[in-house]
Structure formats: structure tokens, C-alpha cells
Amino acid sequence: MLAGIAPMFGAAEFVRPAIDWHAAAPELTLLGFGALITMIDIGWLERARRIAAPLASLALLATLVPIITLALAGDDRSMFNGGFVVDDYSLIMKATFVLAGYVVVLMSTDYIAEGDYWENEYYGLLLSSILGMILMASARDLISIFVALELLSIPAYMLVTWRKRDLKSNEAGLKYYLMGVFASAVMLYGMSLLYGASGSTLLVDVNDAVSEPASPSAVVVLGIIFVVVGFAFKVSAFPFHTWAPDTYEGSPTPVTAFISVASKAAGFVALMNLLFVGFLGRDDVFEPLMWALAAASMTAGNLMALRQTNIVRLLAYSGVAQAGYMLAPLAVAGTVPPDKALTASVTYLVIYAAMNLGAFAVVIAVARKTRSAEISDYRGLFHYAPGLTVAMTIFLFSLAGIPPLGGWLAKFRVMEALIEADTASGLVLGIFVAVNSVIALYYYARIGFGMWAEDAPDGDLTPVNVPMSLGVALTLTAVITVAMGVIPGDVVGRFTEVSLLAGG
């Protein structure tokens, strides 16, 4: 039939594009394991509960194999006329997503089982969302970016409402869904304007078109603003953060950790793909936007965190502030060499993933005893859980940027990019980073003081029972957080050469 139809439309319409199967191997591996988990769930029902978590862990570790082999090959790969690109930048972010997902699976294993939830669907949805994230890292096309964003977002909406009989979880999922859909609509409208102005969905073509002096300026500016605002919702930047505190508090804690790290990082990856490939010729438009979002996010996030009594809500507002730090290098992306700004944001994303996941792992462990997430419950933690106290201290002070923990390197890279810009706006934003780091240190140190120096509530010194899988997650995140700060030259040396390949 195709042979008869082809002459009517031209044979070229039915020619399959060349596919580099090695370049697509991470996505295909994760897709295959996701389908396997779904089939096992359909066929074995309750009998599959025991193997769902191990199989999800195996899926993520197996996905790391082609990522490593692609990194060892060392060559940049491009498919679909530059719409799908594999380079150092995309591989680093894919590895980050996969490892973050693996840690979340470790955090979820006992939490989900003890909650008597439907385990198999949980892990299938988790893998689906991670698949969208690793696809996002290679997307250099407006359509593939949107598809990847929806692939990672839709399973996340369902994961947030996993505690189906919990009103807070239902409220969290509804807020996350409604705000997410609104953000997607705004972003999609912006993309349509950019497509109308450029006549192409490829980011490299969009950049060529919007950089032309003859391009329709009003349409281009409005399109860029709408796309940036759409992703500002996704990364919970102020003032588009309103969904985050309630969603973080109402979600199952492993899901909160997942959306606070992996989902936020995927939003940043999409934003960096757009800025460095699609909009780099219009830095006059996006730099002021990034500056305002960065300054407002870090300041408002830290000030709101000061008033919190619940540690999950505190980490939600801390995440708003951390988004501001990550946005700061993008505010000078058109002034400094693009690789410098990209390196700063990527370094911060990777280190943030380790230290924030670790903090949530401690929250899960402590809640096994306290059954709450109130900051007051952390008083005297050292007296009955010294290991958890040391781990939480590492993560909190790393988030504050205290040497020699990984957070100092993240903030150092941000300050380095801002100072190298040698502009008034860059220097002022650097002052915002410095002042807000001091504000953040106050509320992080307040928790640390309570853990080390105060007595336990009601004098209860019963030890905290930490399951093995949760202990492994804590150990992994703590080691990575410390290693990135102590030996940054060895651990993150490749970041000094990170660049974003536009494709072609």
C-alpha cells in the first residue's frame, strides 16, 4: 500500500531518518524496563510487589551503562537535523537524573511498602518521569522539549497524589496539576509565537531567526517572555512558586524529594537548552528576565523560609532560593563566555541534587520515629541518632555554602561567572547571592543548633530505625556532597569544559 501511496506524495516523505542507536540507548533502555515493569504488574499483580523496587533500581543502573559508554566514546552525536543531540552536557545531566532517580527508589522502597500503597504503578510512573528528563537533556527542538516536559510532568502529578485517602495529598496534587497545566499553556503559547516568527521548531533555526534585525521584534520578545515564565513555574522561581510549599508538604516524602531535585533540574535543563541554543542572540531580552527572577527568588525564598516551623515547607522555600542561585549565571549568559555560565549552572544543579536528596532522606528517617516533620522534633537528635545528625549537618551546611562541603563550590562557580561579567548588574546580583547566603545560613544553623545542643522533646532517646535501602541513599548522597567540596578538581573536573552543542 505504501508503495502505491508514495508516488502521490513523493518518496522522500517515507524515508526513515538515520538513527544512531547508541545515542538513543539510554532512552530505549529505560523505556524497555518501564514496559517490563508494566507487563509484570499486569501479569503477576500482587506477586510482583516484591520485585518492583529491585527491578526499578536495576533499570536505572542499566541505563547508566550506555551513558558511560557514550561518555567514553567522547564524540558528539546529532540526529533529526539537530533536534536530538548527545554531548558532554547532555550526558552529565542524564547521569544526574538517573542517579537521582536511583536514590529516590532507595528512599521509596520501605516508605511505599510500609504505607501499603500500590507499589508497581509507583515505580512505573517514576521511570516514566525520569525517561522524560533524560529525553529533555538531548532535546534541541521546541516539539521534543514540550513532549519531554509533559512526559516528566504527567506521572509526577499522579505521584504527588499517591496517598489517595489523604486530603493533603489530594490538595497537593490538584495544586501541582492546575499550576503545571497553566504553566504548560503559557509556555506553549510562547513557543507558537517563536515558531511563527522563525518558521521552524529547531532551536538553532529559532536563534538564527530571532537574532535577525528584521525579525518581528514584538512577537519574538513576547514569545521569549512567555516561554521563560512557563519554565519559571516548573523550577518554582518567585513569584511563580506558589504551588511548591503545599505540594511538598502534601506529597509522599520520596516524591517531594523527587520533584524538588530531578523535576526542578529538568526544568532548568530545558531553560538552558532554550537560552543557550534558541535565544542566545536575544540576550537583551532574557538577561533582564533572568536577573529579576534570580534576585527575587533567592531573596523571597530565604525570607519566607525564616518563618517556617515545618522542615518540609522550609526546604520548599529553600528550594525557591536555590533556584535563584541557579538562575543567577543565566543573567550574564550573553556577557560572559556561554560555557562559563553554563558550567556554573550545571555544577550547581549536580551538587544541589546530592545535598537536597540527602536532606530529604534524613527527613524520612527521622519521621519513622516522630511521625511528623516539625522542626521542633529535631531538637536533641544527636542524643539518639548521632549518624543522622552528622548527615543532616553536612547537607544543611552544604546548602548554605560552607566549605569544604559541595555547596561552596556551587556558589563559588556562580560568583565566578557574575564577577567575570564585569558589569554593574552582575556585581549587584553577586551581592544578592552573598547577602542571601548569610540569611540562609541563619535558618540552616538554627536547625543544626537544635540537633546538637538542645535536649530531645519529652526526653525520648529511643534510637531511629534506618532501613538498609535508606541508609544506602544517605551514604551515597553524603559521600557525593563531601567529595564535590573536598576534591572538586577530580570529581567535577569535566565541568570546566562543558559546552552545549546546538546540533546540525
Describe this structure in words.
This protein has a domain at 279-497. 74% of the residues lie in helices and 1% in strands. The protein is built from 20 helices and two strands. Residues 1-12 have low confidence and may be disordered.
Question: Nutshell version of this structure?
Answer:
With 504 residues, the chain is mainly α. 74% of the residues lie in helices and 1% in strands. A two-stranded antiparallel sheet has the order 1-2.
Give a quick set of tags describing it.
504 residues, 1% strand, two-stranded antiparallel sheet, disordered N terminus
Task: Set out the fold topology.
Layout: H1 2-9, H2 25-44, H3 49-73, E1 77-79, E2 84-86, H4 88-114, H5 119-138, H6 142-160, H7 167-198, H8 203-210, H9 217-234, H10 244-250, H11 253-278, H12 283-305, H13 311-327, H14 338-370, H15 381-384, H16 386-400, H17 406-421, H18 424-453, H19 468-486, H20 488-491
Helix pairs in contact: 2-3, 2-5, 3-4, 3-5, 4-5, 4-11, 4-14, 4-19, 5-6, 5-11, 6-7, 6-11, 7-8, 7-9, 7-10, 8-11, 9-11, 9-12, 10-11, 10-13, 11-13, 11-14, 12-13, 12-18, 13-14, 14-16, 14-17, 14-19, 16-18, 16-19, 17-18, 17-19
